[in-house]
Amino acid sequence: MSDLLFATNNSHKLREIQEIIGNEFRILSLKDVKLDIDIPETQETIEGNAVQKVRFVYELTGLNCFADDTGLEIDALNGRPGVYSARYAGEGCSFDDNINKILRELTGVENRKACFRCAICLITDGEEHIFQGRVNGVITTERKGTDGFGYDPVFLPDGHRQTFAMMPAYLKNGISHRGRAVEKMVKWLTC
Ligand code: IMP
Q1: Non-local CB neighbours of 33 within 8 Å, separated by 6+ positions
Q2: Which residue of 41, 92, 150, 187 has the fewest CB atoms within a 10 Å radius of its CB?
Q3: Alpha carbon separation from 70 to 42, 60, 136, 141, 145 (Å, rounded)
Q4: Model confidence, pTM
Q5: Closest CA to 133 of 121, 149, 123, 146
Q6: Residue nearest to atom 13 of ligand 1 (CA)
Q7: What tens digit of pLDDT does each residue of 158-184 get?
């Protein structure tokens, strides 16, 4: 089994990726390699952030590794919060603060279309590869469900009756932005 270091401090993402990848690769966390660091994320696109994060960790460790970055893009908000999804309600804000802000901004708005976009940058043997995944849906008018993280309680993927926060993990991972990007990465690694 090969090892891949996942350049994230987000324990939710780590669990999701481990579930999606299964047994083919062993996913190492920053903790596993004794790295206690803040990873910079200062680019203007999710692809730029994924590249920035993975380069930072690769330069520190020299290990095969990958990083992801995700943005929630809401049509009626001209694509916001986008690359600012993590800190939309301000530096140090919580997932709840961010949800409150988008629900407030969408009060009375009929067009609730949105999508999650995820970019993964993988470095193996010094070479960079980018994989992308996307899922379309709508923003609900109130929170539904308690699982998942981030904007999951208000994101209803197209063709489904449950928000991401109401779904069992395997269902979310099977259709999500991150699940789709990871699937492409695994396919590339195993072919
Ligand atoms: P990041 O920069 O990739 O960590 O993602 C930015 C923000 O998007 C996170 O802080 C979450 O609020 C949100 N996010 C990322 N992935 C998901 C997801 O799978 N579901 C819900 N929200 C997510």
Answers
A1: 5, 61, 63
A2: 92
A3: 13, 23, 13, 22, 21
A4: 0.94
A5: 121
A6: 150
A7: 999 999 999 999 999 999 999 999 999
Lowest mean pLDDT among 8-17, 49-58, 161-170: 8-17
160 alpha carbon – ligand 1 mean position (Å): 20
By most ligand atoms within 8 Å of CB, the mutation choice from 20, 151, 162, 182 for ligand 1 is 151
Q: Where are the domains of the chain?
A: 2-190
Distances in Å between the Cα of 49 and the Cα atoms of 26, 82, 124, 162 are: 24, 12, 18, 30
What three-state secondary structure class fits 165? Answer: coil
Question: Is the beta carbon of 95 within 6 A of some atom in ligand 1?
Answer: yes
Please tell me the distance from the alpha carbon of residue 190 to that of residue 142, in angstroms, as a whole number: 41
Q: Provide CB contacts within 8 A for 126, sequence distance 6+.
A: none
Q: Which CATH class is domain 2-190?
A: alpha beta
Among 32, 69, 147, 152, the active-site one is 69
